[in-house]
Backbone:
RNA sequence: GGCCCGUUGGUCAAGGGGUUAAGACGCCUCUCUUUCACGGAGGAAUCACGAGUUCGAUUCUCGUACGGGCUACCA
């Protein structure tokens, strides 16, 4: 494939806060598509709204992509031949195209103030039309270069009067587009309003910027959320009016991710309300200082997060649900993306993580587990030991932090023993058994789970006590509670001396 | 209100004119394990509705209902 027809996609977030799973899924689909076709994945920062700009959000977005291993081929930090990749730094580019549109009669200057606009909306509001739009039916009633005398317009502009440039949407024309997911979608332009293209501050709106930049950056396939579908005719019109129709990218409007309960698209609030993450990573709002927890910090593996994201609205047609990034790159197809929105299910998300923890080797899990333990003040230097422990417990950890609860007793004796389950059945005979058991295991010789178990069972048989009656007490002495991997494995790992110590302490406590 | 997009169990979903309508999550039962999980075996539960086309519609068409999105000098 030559460079001229190379597939180029872009993820174009606006840096206004945390990156939620919908955004991350858009990145993922872009990334998969690019990699599958050996194309270019561009990151473009859409920071045209100065009011909503949040410092740090761009770095945060980069970090999220980094976590998931989806590195842009071009972008503000990587550079590239079509930069700059921040729209705020491209401000000067947009004006000329807006002016070009005005010259061609496809756009016009509008001088209406916010108050004018508000008054218009109130004045023309009826039961049939509760939200009047600045469109073909109303534009001749407003203050713009269509209604004002050319000399007046010229004078207003020269005097620096605040104004915007609006697209002049034709009346009663059919505008259609082919969507890769939905097929043909048609609109009658009479329903489309004269969207602002260039704002009073000289910044473009999304509508102008997305078209200009997609053209200039040679984007071939444009993926975005379904919420953009209604404004797609504006974009199609712009591609046409700018004379770039042949270069228009193929569109794919992705289904929305919905709230698990009730209705509407998923928002950060739902996560707060229902107790699950919505953002990829922890996000601290620099203004309020509020911390919103992310999937990563709550203990999700990047592999699981990606896998979960991919299955939200896509499948390969088989019943396979577990995919590596490489498999996804190979198997992804935009045609198999669902049309309907999917309700987010946190239980299922956790299931993916659990599956990935089970699937990954102790060695691969080790860095994450080390981090978890270090946070809790446990530093492990013996890698082989740690891997052995991880192998023992990983099947019972759903989220990474659970590795702490599942492994802490390997490193330190339980501080408190939960004795309720065994106290009532505790007896002098059992105490004597454990005293003897300690004596027996202290004699030199090999030490592993099998040894610990056979000594235990032989002694129990000798004393005519059912081994089952003894195992739970042993577990509680070693672990402190009724959970964890097989008890003799634990004894084996912590060693005979520590086992003896804990048993002796346990006998005291009971 | 208008425009646009959707609709297979509670959730994610496969399928697509004739099927016992896959599979997964969750839930329940049993089993393994004298811990907790994992694993294994089962179970309950679905084609929104109405017309039409057809020998036959969950599948095609049209309506309706319902859900969603948009309707900003936000993206």
Residues:
């Amino acid at each position: 494939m030559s460079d001229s027809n190379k597939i180029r996609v872009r993820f174009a977030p606006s840096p206004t806060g945390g990156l939620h799973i919908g955004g991350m899924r858009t990145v993922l689909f872009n990334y998969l598509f690019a990699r599958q076709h050996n194309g270019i994945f561009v990151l473009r920062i859409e920071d045209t709204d100065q009011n909503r700009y949040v410092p740090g959000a761009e770095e945060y977005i980069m970090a999220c992509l980094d976590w998931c291993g989806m590195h842009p081929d071009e972008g503000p930090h990587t550079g590239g031949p079509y930069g700059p990749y921040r729209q705020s730094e491209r401000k000067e580019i947009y004006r000329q195209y807006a002016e070009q549109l005005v010259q061609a009669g496809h756009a016009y200057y509008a001088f209406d103030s916010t108050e004018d606009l508000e008054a218009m909306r109130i004045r023309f509001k009826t039961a049939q039309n509760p939200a009047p739009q600045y469109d073909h039916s109303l534009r001749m009633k407003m203050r713009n270069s269509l209604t004002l005398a050319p000399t007046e317009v010229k004078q207003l502009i020269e005097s620096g009067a605040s104004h915007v440039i609006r697209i002049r949407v034709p009346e009663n024309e059919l505008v259609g587009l082919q969507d890769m997911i939905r097929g043909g979608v048609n609109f009658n332009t009479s329903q489309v309003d004269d969207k602002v293209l260039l704002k009073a501050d000289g910044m473009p709106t999304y509508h102008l910027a997305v078209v200009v930049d997609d053209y200039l950056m040679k984007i071939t396939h444009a993926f975005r959320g379904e919420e953009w579908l209604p404004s797609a005719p504006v974009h199609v019109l712009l591609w046409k009016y700018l004379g770039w129709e042949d270069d228009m990218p193929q569109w794919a409007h992705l289904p929305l991710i919905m709230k698990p309960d009730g209705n509407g698209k998923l928002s950060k609030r739902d996560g707060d309300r229902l107790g699950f993450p919505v953002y990829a990573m922890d996000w601290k709002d620099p203004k309020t200082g509020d911390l919103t927890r992310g999937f990563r910090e709550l203990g999700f593996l990047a592999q699981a997060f990606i896998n979960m994201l991919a299955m939200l609205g896509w499948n390969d047609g088989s019943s396979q649900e577990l995919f590596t990034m490489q498999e996804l790159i190979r198997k992804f197809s935009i045609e198999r993306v669902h049309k309907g929105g999917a309700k987010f299910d946190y239980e299922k998300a956790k299931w993916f993580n659990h599956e990935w923890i089970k699937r990954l080797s102790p060695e691969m899990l080790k860095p994450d587990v080390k981090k978890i333990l270090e946070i809790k003040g446990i530093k492990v230097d013996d890698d082989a030991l740690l891997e052995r422990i991880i192998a023992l417990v990983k099947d019972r950890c759903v989220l990474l932090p659970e590795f702490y609860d599942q492994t802490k007793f390997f490193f330190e004796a339980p501080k408190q023993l939960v004795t309720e389950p065994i106290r009532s059945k505790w007896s002098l005979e059992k105490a004597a058994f454990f005293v003897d058991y300690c004596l027996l295991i202290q004699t030199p010789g090999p030490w592993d789970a099998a040894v610990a178990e056979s000594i235990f069972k032989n002694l129990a048989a000798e004393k005519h006590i059912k081994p089952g009656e003894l195992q739970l007490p042993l577990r509680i002495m070693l672990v402190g509670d009724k959970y964890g991997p097989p008890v003799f494995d634990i004894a084996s790992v912590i060693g005979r001396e520590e086992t003896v110590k804990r048993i002796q302490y346990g006998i005291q406590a009971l």
Chain A has a mean pLDDT of 95. The domain at 363-404 of chain A is CATH 1.10.8 (Helicase, Ruva Protein; domain 3).
